[in-house]
Amino acid sequence: TLGVLTLGRRIKKARGVAVTKSPAEIRDLFAWLEANAPEIVPAYALMTFAGIRPCYVAGEIRKLDESQVNLASGVITILPEVSKVNEKRKFQMSENLVAWLRAYPLDRFPIVCPNWGRLRRKITKQFELSQDVLRHSAITYWVAKNKSHFEAARQFGNSESVIRKHYQDNDRTDDEADAFFDIYPRAAGGKLVKFA
Question: What is the pLDDT of residue 17?
Fold first, then answer.
């Protein structure tokens, strides 16, 4: 609900905590993607672990060029013309995101694959993904792990006040954050693989 009833008055809720998926739900999503839609894995890795804004029409994921993702430095450069807020930012990739993009290299798996729309609709329905739930999950677990609203705002292209308003009281534990950033691609034998 938008508020609570107190002594006959409606008081507007002060904070809206962002809706997220659990690490187990994210793990299930990626297991399905690897088995059924490997061509779209890089896009989902970028949306999930880097919080790249997901809208296909006007979102960052649609405009991000493969050349802006540097695995050697571990940095994604979001240019002003790509960013929703028209500001350049640099995102420091997590180890698991680098592993996903090495397992599914962008020169073989472009960020926007040819059957993007059909796959996105199917995945969204099957896994009950709201528009920004993967981005919200990325920011929530990043804040839980790194404890810095300022740095989260800088990395994800939000204001610090937005980070505090939507991600500060998310009730996600350190263990959940660790589990989220411990989701790696699977090797042929089914073992989780970490890449150096």
Answer: 66
Q: Could you tell me the two tokens for 161?
A: 């006040």
Residues 132-144: pLDDT tens digits?
Answer: 899 889 888 888 8
Structure tokens, 113: 């694959």
Q: How far apart are CA 139 and CA 145, in angstroms?
A: 10
- Looking up tokens 């705002």, which residue turns up? 153
Q: What is the 3-state secondary structure (H, E, C) of the chain?
A: CCEEEECCEEEECCCCCCCCCCHHHHHHHHHHHHHHCHHHHHHHHHHHHCCCCCCCCCCHHHHCCHHHEECCCCEEEECCCCCCCCCCEEEECCHHHHHHHHHCCCCCCCCCCCCHHHHHHHHHHHCCCCCCHHHHHHHHHHHHHHCCHHHHHHHHCCCHHHHHHHHCCCCCCHHHHHHHCCCCCECCCCCECCCC
The CA angle 140-143-147, to the nearest 5 degrees, is 155
Q: Which amino acid is at 51?
A: G
Tell me the chain's radius of gyration from C-alpha atoms.
17
Amino acid letter at 20?
T
